[in-house]
Write a structure and sequence with these properties.
This protein has 198 residues and is mainly alpha-helical. The protein contains five helices and four strands, in the order ββααββααα. The strands form two sheets. It has a two-stranded antiparallel sheet with strand order 1-2. A hairpin with a 2-residue loop joins strand 1 and strand 2. The longest helix has 19 residues. 24% of the residues are buried. Keywords: Developmental protein, DNA-binding, Nucleus, Transcription, Transcription regulation.
Length: 198
């Protein structure tokens, strides 16, 4: 074992064993789970929804590495293996992504069914990578060696986002943060007069 925690088979299989990639949507994982990552929330007893999802994602990625041919250790995992994993997950996608030859290319709500493939939505993949990136570092991985933060992974996610935006006619513009109501009111109030007027 290296400086960070490798995946270890657990004595008890995770019956859910799934990666939830979209709100409410899951992809089946027919493999037993790996050991849970040691995170700060683990010691408190109950984990948040995010922590539970991160643990399931980490276990599923570990299982993917073990079932890889040839099997891979986490220490030998690279950005290319992460991309391979993301492409593997596409088979469980629920988002219709129109091809350029499809008459509904660029239409967000097509009027009829088409044979275009179902893929993982960009937002789901982006969130998954964020959770796996955090889990890697929580398990002792060094940030500079994090395969989930590799340039190739970032470029792939950007390419998926852009291609899905064109194919589905949906823009993925970053939403501007709304300021809390109290701050907006304070900005419109006149400043009190200063006391040191000469």
């Amino acid at each position: 074992m290296n400086s960070f925690q490798e995946f270890e088979p657990s004595s008890k299989a995770d019956t859910k064993g799934a990666i939830s990639l979209a709100e409410g949507g899951t992809t089946s994982n027919k493999f037993p789970s790996a050991a849970a990552p040691s995170s700060p929330a683990s010691s408190s007893g109950t984990l948040s929804r995010y922590e539970n999802q991160k643990r399931r994602d980490w276990n599923t990625f570990g299982q993917y590495l073990r079932n890889h041919r040839p099997p891979l250790s986490l220490s030998r995992c690279s950005g290319a293996h992460v991309l391979e994993f993301l492409r593997y997950l596409d088979q469980f996608g629920k988002t219709k992504v129109h091809t350029q030859l499809c008459p509904f290319f660029g239409h967000p709500n097509p009027p009829a069914p088409c044979p275009c493939p179902l893929r993982q939505a960009w937002g789901s993949l982006d969130a998954l990578i964020g959770r796996l990136r955090a889990a890697f570092e929580e398990n002792g991985g060094k940030p500079e060696a994090n395969p989930f933060g590799a340039r190739a992974v970032r470029l792939y996610l950007r390419e998926v986002r852009d291609s899905q935006a064109k194919a589905r006619g949906i823009s993925y513009e970053k939403k501007k943060r709304k300021r809390p109501q109290q701050q907006q009111q304070q900005q419109h109030l006149p400043l009190p007069p200063s006391n040191n007027a000469s």
